[in-house]
Specification:
about 750 residues; mainly alpha; two-stranded antiparallel ribbon; elongated
Length: about 750
């Protein structure tokens, strides 16, 4: 493996070691927090928080990441884009670590979106294939839409709590739960979590993400992006849980997703597709249990989080070994691989036994806790227990399909290549992960005190509510349900071919969001094309219509929603000179709109400018008036010179025609702007900025003309930018006029 392959391995391993060193402190009830100011004026900081929940996720992300990086170095050896792949995968890992360790919600959102972007790059890594590009875009759009909803929820919860720091929001207790904005906040957060963790009906993007190389699938499904939504639900549990909406939404969506995905897993014949749907089952199960408040349910969620990460990464890497060694992942063709691939067969078999929930693996303990958690649900224990039993039994059958049939049953057909075992770099990950499943099952205390209990404490606020992890808890209802799972699972595996056909028939008759996805995208493109033709027509008058109509709707609509204009118009001190100025401005505006002559039109605009200058003089601003007069005079002269170079307008484009819509729009805009100006000047004026410039003009800038001091000193860069814009516009106009003159000469 090259240096480019070893660097990510070393980085992930180093992060894992650093996080391991934090385990004793976190297990003792401490939390670690680091803060760097980022945008202090907006209350945004780069703050990172290590507690039981974030530590568990961080260890899974970095530990499994190191094994996946090691695997990738050989799996993609010789690929022309290997370095790019490792870079994307490393950025993906760092994005997930930032997400789970962030204490500031806006920081969390930045990393949330980075996971969407990096997963897009990884899913579409084989960019020469149209299907890869399509599936990558699908994942990006679905999760990105949910991300926008999450951002809106973050803004709302920040307004309610007065802070974006998760640790501070959590300390406020039920402040969010009792607020009037609780329901919108909850729904927006759930939209972000459900799209990210692929809950029904947003599930379709996740199986399609299998277009990515196998190491990406192993990483994405076991410890990273698809669990980001689960992490968000767990992190927000102390703040958003406790309502019926939280309970029923998570329970129903989680149960439906778990059962639906379990049936769809049996439907597949590709090993990666089967494993993808079992991931959906796991995400639904985790969502279901995070909807509860009992110690059993949250302990089950935290334990199953670890269990699933271990066996799923091992099984995906096993599937990659099978594909690498045989050239196919079709379970109908595979068989008898145990002799040619003994290490892969044993590691995959152990991981599958943990997935099926056999003792003495950690999967058995997780399954027992899931049943205990289902029984502990007060509102709907039978519904939850039935859903979990069905899903577990189907997972038992799926485990046999992906890890027993390819190795221990006869082959179903000729293979593309002679089977052979994978190199040690590709075996290390499945072996270590499978061994961890055995070790944690035989000695559950290894993770109970260091990960599970602190994680439960981070969610429920008290580690004492965590339930014990026991390989043998006696003869009880969870054990009876486990036995029922084994019996039903064996029956489902024995008849999985017939069940596969039945599920396929039902699927063919039902609606498919993935099947209609391309139609939705085509419709979106059609709308975008129509919008572009309307808004970007190339006609200046239409651009002006759109701009002014938008201003009218936005500003005028805001005035109407706020009760309209409520101030009385009082003009007690108007004199003849004031009315004369008004008459001059109205006459200039009328001439500009009614004349066919460009010179007359610019003259009318000049008259309007002179009227404005007179207003400045009347109200004691002679310096501004002089500037206005000079500008108006210069504009009139320059335009008069330029008008001689411009082509004549056609008769149909003459300005003298009466345009009712133009008149109505212009009058409406003028009225709205007038009302806004009157309303802004009717109330008391905040002199904070005015007082500052008055006090600082002479001591700091040595100038008594405050306007000039502001332009030259306090806002020098703004002034420079404005001058640059004017110069660029002048150069552009000069070039156009000069080019037009040469063209006409020819």
């Amino acid at each position: 493996m090259t240096v480019a392959g070893w660097i990510p391995v070393a980085l992930a391993a180093a992060i894992f070691v650093v996080l391991v060193q934090a385990m004793p402190s976190v297990a003792a009830g401490q939390t670690l927090r680091v803060v760097w100011p980022w945008v202090p004026s907006l209350g945004v900081s780069l703050s990172f928080w290590v507690d039981g929940l974030s530590l568990t996720f961080g260890l899974l992300i970095s530990g499994i990441g190191a094994l996946v990086f090691l695997y990738s170095g050989t799996y993609l050896r010789g690929h022309p884009q290997f370095v790019r792949f490792m870079l994307f995968l490393t950025l993906f890992m760092l994005s997930m670590l930032g997400l789970v360790l962030a204490d500031n919600l806006l920081t969390l959102f930045v990393f949330w979106e980075l996971t969407s972007v990096t997963s897009y790059l990884l899913i579409g890594f084989n960019h020469a294939e149209g299907q890869s590009r399509r599936n990558a875009l699908q994942a990006l759009l679905v999760t990105g839409t949910g991300g926008l909803a999450l951002l809106a929820g973050i803004v709302l919860i920040g307004a309610v709590a007065g802070t974006f720091e998760l640790s501070e929001i959590r300390a406020q207790g039920d402040a969010v739960l009792t607020n009037a904005l609780y329901l919108p906040i909850l729904l927006l957060f759930l939209a972000g979590a459900f799209t990210k963790s692929a809950q029904v009906p947003f599930h379709f993007w996740l199986p399609n993400a299998m277009a990515a190389p196998t190491p990406v699938s192993a990483y994405l499904h076991s410890a990273t992006m698809v669990k980001a939504g689960v992490y968000l639900l767990a992190r927000m549990h102390p703040t958003l849980s406790g309502s019926d909406v939280w309970f029923w939404t998570l329970t129903i969506f989680g149960a439906v997703t778990a059962v639906f995905a379990s049936f769809m897993a049996i439907r597949q014949t590709d090993m990666k597709q089967t494993l993808a749907y079992t991931t959906l089952m796991a995400l639904g199960t985790l969502t279901l249990y995070l909807g509860q408040d009992s110690g059993y349910a949250i302990t089950a969620a935290m334990t199953f989080l670890v269990v699933h990460s271990l066996y799923k990464a091992a099984l995906f890497l096993m599937a990659g070994n099978v594909d690498h060694g045989t050239g196919t992942r079709d379970v109908n063709l595979l068989g008898g691989l145990a002799r040619a691939m003994p290490v892969t067969a044993i590691a995959g078999g152990i991981a599958a036994l943990s997935m099926a929930g056999f003792p003495p693996f950690i999967g058995f303990i997780g399954k027992e806790l899931k049943y205990a958690g289902a029984i502990a649900v007060q509102e709907a224990p039978y519904l939850v227990s039935a859903a979990v039993l069905t899903a577990n039994a189907l997972m038992f059958a799926a485990a046999g399909i992906v890890a027993f049939r390819p190795f221990w049953r006869p082959a179903g057909g000729p293979l593309p290549q002679t089977p052979h075992e994978a190199p040690w770099q590709m075996l290390t990950g499945p072996v270590i992960l499978a061994a961890a499943g055995v070790a944690f099952g035989l000695a559950p205390a290894l993770i109970a005190v260091t990960l599970i209990e602190p994680g439960v404490g981070a969610i429920l606020g008290s580690p004492e509510e965590a339930k014990a992890l026991k390989l043998w808890a006696g003869v009880n209802i969870p054990l009876m349900l486990s036995i029922a799972t084994f019996v039903l699972g064996f029956a489902l595996y024995a008849g999985h071919r017939r069940l596969r056909g039945l599920v396929a028939a039902v699927e063919a008759r039902g609606p498919s969001l993935d099947g209609s996805w391309d139609g939705w995208i085509d419709a979106l493109k059609a709308v975008a094309g129509w919008q572009t033709r309307v808004l970007q027509s190339g006609v200046m008058r239409r651009y002006l219509y759109i701009v002014f109509a938008t201003i009218l709707v936005g500003v005028g609509g805001a005035l109407l929603l706020r009760g309209g204009f409520s101030h009385a118009l009082a003009m007690p001190n108007l004199q003849i000179k004031h009315w004369a100025v008004v008459a001059l401005i109205v006459a200039g505006a009328g001439l500009t709109t009614m004349t066919d002559s460009r010179i007359a039109a610019i003259g009318g605009l000049g008259a309007v400018g002179i009227g404005v200058a007179l207003i400045f003089i009347i109200f004691g601003a002679p310096d501004v008036a002089i500037t206005q007069l000079l500008v108006e005079t210069l504009v009139v002269v320059l335009f008069a010179v330029a008008a001689l170079r411009l082509p004549r307008l056609s008769e149909t484009a003459g300005a003298g025609r009466f345009r009712p819509f133009d008149a109505i729009l212009a009058s409406a805009i003028g009225t709205v702007i007038m009302l806004v100006m009157l309303m802004s000047t009717a109330g008391p004026i905040d002199r904070k900025i005015t007082d500052y410039f008055e006090d600082a003009s002479w001591p700091e800038a040595y100038g008594r003309n405050i306007v000039n001091v502001i332009l030259v000193d306090f806002r020098a860069l703004d002034t420079f930018g404005e001058i640059a814009v004017v110069v660029i516009a002048a150069l552009g106009a000069f070039a156009l006029l000069k080019g037009g003159r040469k063209g006409s000469a020819r």
